[in-house]
Amino acid sequence: MTSSPTDTLAQAGPARGGRVRPSDRSPSRIPARRRRPLKPAQVVSRVLLGALLVVQVYPLVWIFMTAVRDDADFASHGAFGLPQSFTLDNFARAFDQGDLGRNILNSLVVTLGASALIVVCGLTGAYAIQVLGFRGSKVVRALFLVGIIVPVQVALVPLFVDYARIGLLDTHLSMIIPLAGFSLPMSLYLFMSFFQYIPQELYDAASIDGAGPTAIFARITLPMSVNTIVTVVMINSIFIWNDFVFGNTFVLSEELKTVPLGLQNYIGAMGKTDWTATFAAVCVTVTPLLLVFIVLNRAMMYGLESGATKG
Predict the structure, then answer these.
(1) Beta strands in 223-293 (DSSP E)
(2) Which of 116, 183, 201, 307 could bridge across to 190 with cysteines, CB 3.0–4.6 Å?
(3) Whole domain around residue 127: which residue ranges?
(4) Which of the 8 DSSP states describes residue 253?
């Protein structure tokens, strides 16, 4: 029986020099890659990361699940039971029982106002201390960083007295000013850390071309600081949006209540609470901030890396 040319080539073995070309290898002869067993440290780290993910995600899932349960389901299966019903009436009741729209608007005004003040003061202050430099700049930096450890409670009574004297009590500014002031030290530190990453040669070249400090700030520093600005705004917006201490101290009227203060309206007489409507209100107030955080997450992470790691 004669052999075909194909069989002859198959029996000829490897090419000259003993090398086997990739095309000559049979798929069955390619050894399967064995998966390396995980080390104990890797197992522990993955378990901890999984537990941390559950701790972070579970409250949000619980809030959204409870917001769509009816009162009978909530009463019969408890607060932590799985939902057995689905309804959107809780959201309508949340807007009927409380002035939720006005609360969200007030929180938006306070958050935007305080964030704008933080960015303007933090950006220009960090530029003056880190880039321009002046005699005593290290002392000023140390004083700002000391402000990180100052608790907000020590300023409540003095601010209340001062606001009552100058007529700022029960206004949006009574919340914007202290919220921006106590958030400024950390924001200033992030901006200064990022400015250390900008090469000094850029500033020198701009100075040689005749640009002054204002032009350098507007044309070089500000455009390069966009991601850091997003990071500062997002970090501070979370705390400003959820602030209760300053609002509860300086706001006296219902028209100026923010979201944390407005949630008190869902507590009725003798402590009776409409829990499903309360959870629906929390969902409405959390969702916008959560969506913004998800959209700007990448810019925020880049700003943190630029300000903390590379600085």
Answers:
(1) none
(2) 307
(3) 101-309
(4) S
pLDDT band at 308 (very low <50, low <70, confident <90, very high): very low
What is the dihedral angle through the alpha carbons of 43, 45, 46, 51, rounded to the nearest 10 degrees? 120
In this structure, the answer to whether residues 80 and 112 fall within a common structural domain is no
**66 contacts 277 by C-beta, under 8 angstroms:** no
- Tens of pLDDT, residue by residue over 137-173, are 888 888 888 888 888 888 899 999 999 999 999 999 9
Q: The domain spanning residue 195 has which CATH number?
A: 1.10.3720.10
C-alpha neighbours within 13 Å on the C-beta side of residue 47: 7
**pLDDT tens track for 3-46:** 555 454 444 444 445 455 555 555 555 555 667 777 778 788 88
CB neighbours of 132 closer than 8 A, spacing ≥ 6? 213
Sort residue 167 into left (φ over 0), alpha (ψ -120 to 50) or beta. Answer: left
